[in-house]
């Protein structure tokens, strides 16, 4: 399936969240990831996130679509998609 | 159509971007909006944003789906959807 993941978490946990999400999805903007992922791997990502998240303060929102083509993407301004995902 | 809008812009323009997006969509998380919107109103939103954006530094990404049900949404942790959208 295709997902867009956005997170908003406490300063002390941001680096850990960024590192975790990078293992599963593509970073496209500050706290925003997208990509194809299986249900099992998404569950693993969320299980790992919950291990360090403060669920009373932090938030992850995931939008799931059947596949990449179910969503049209438009970028205005600077495209931040970091190339180090491809190194 | 149904959209998810995420922005990342310079500190001096964040308040203006937040105010603008709130006129058209629902705030759900830091720099993240969602909602039903017509093509015309989305164009108006982006036209207004471009009037103050620094397109060499700022970024808006819009994901468009045919309707609300084209995407499944999952929230982990604190749901930040601010109630003042409904006041």
From TrEMBL, chains A, B:
A Pfam entry, by short name: CRISPR_Cas2
Key words, A-Z: Antiviral defense, Endonuclease, Hydrolase, Magnesium, Metal-binding, Nuclease
InterPro entries according to UniProt: CRISPR_associated_Cas2 (IPR021127), Virulence_VapD/CRISPR_Cas2 (IPR019199)
Gene Ontology biological-process entries: defense response to virus; maintenance of CRISPR repeat elements
EC supergroup of this enzyme: hydrolase
EC number: 3.1.-.-
Cofactor: Mg(2+)
Binding site for Mg(2+): 8
An annotated Gene Ontology molecular function: metal ion binding
Role according to the record: CRISPR (clustered regularly interspaced short palindromic repeat), is an adaptive immune system that provides protection against mobile genetic elements (viruses, transposable elements and conjugative plasmids). CRISPR clusters contain sequences complementary to antecedent mobile elements and target invading nucleic acids. CRISPR clusters are transcribed and processed into CRISPR RNA (crRNA). Functions as a ssRNA-specific endoribonuclease. Involved in the integration of spacer DNA into the CRISPR cassette.
Complex and partners: Homodimer, forms a heterotetramer with a Cas1 homodimer.
UniProt record similarity statement: Belongs to the CRISPR-associated endoribonuclease Cas2 protein family.
NCBIfam families per record: cas2
Name the record gives this protein: CRISPR-associated endoribonuclease Cas2
Organism: Bacteroides faecis
Biological classification of the source: Bacteria, Pseudomonadati, Bacteroidota, Bacteroidia, Bacteroidales
């Amino acid at each position: 399936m295709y997902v867009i993941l956005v997170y908003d978490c406490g300063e002390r946990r941001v680096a850990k969240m960024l590192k975790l999400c990078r293992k599963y999805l593509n970073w496209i903007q500050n706290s925003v990831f997208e990509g194809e992922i299986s249900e099992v791997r998404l569950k693993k990502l969320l299980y790992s996130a919950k291990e360090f998240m403060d669920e009373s303060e932090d938030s992850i929102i995931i939008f799931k679509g059947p596949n990449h083509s179910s969503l049209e993407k438009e970028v205005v301004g600077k495209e931040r998609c970091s190339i180090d995902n491809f190194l």
